[in-house]
Amino acid sequence: MFDAPTSVPAEQINPEGFRASPNGHVYGLIADPECTVPAVTADLLSQRIPLDGIHIYCSSEGVDALDLTGSRHGLRARITRMIQSFAYEDGHLHVIERALEAGEALVGVAVDGDRKGDVAKILHRHGGHDVVYYGNFTWQRLGPRDQTQTKEER
């Protein structure tokens, strides 16, 4: 796991607690977190994205924190994740899990829908892939579909 960038508080790296809904967030995978996450964070802050709205998940600790199956947080969480696994196309949760295990980082940014494009541009500028915005009862891929390979597969 990489050292947490100094601009993001430690509690926002692999944050504890079950995050049942990704609504109102843009999430994107970053292939080289040691070099890229600090730059992404700096660019987000320069665009007046609040620091407390930025969360970073990395390595197996990130997989555990996301609890993509819900198994660590009880029956309600398992049902939530099961529904999400059907709702998100292309096995998106599996793509995230594989990428984190391969050493990539998932950057999550709380943002209003009208700023989702700005956040996506920042992530893409720094090599982000599989960038997705989650709204109420919907999700939208923000960028090319063909970027679902992990760093190991490239």
How would you describe this protein?
With 154 residues, this protein is an alpha+beta fold. It has one domain: Alpha-Beta Plaits, CATH 3.30.70. 36% of the residues lie in helices and 18% in strands. It contains 5 helices and 5 strands; from the N terminus they run βαβαααβαββ. It has helices at 33-46, 59-66, 75-87, 92-101, 116-125; strands at residues 25-30, 54-58, 105-110, 129-135, 138-141. A 5-stranded antiparallel sheet has the order 2-3-1-4-5, with helices on both faces. Helix 2 packs antiparallel against helix 4. The longest helix is centred in the first third of the chain and has 14 residues, at 33-46. The model is unreliable at 1-6 and 146-154 (pLDDT under 50).
What's the layout of helices and strands?
Elements: E1 25-30, H1 33-46, E2 54-58, H2 59-66, H3 75-87, H4 92-101, E3 105-110, H5 116-125, E4 129-135, E5 138-141
Antiparallel strand pairs: 1-3, 1-4, 2-3, 4-5
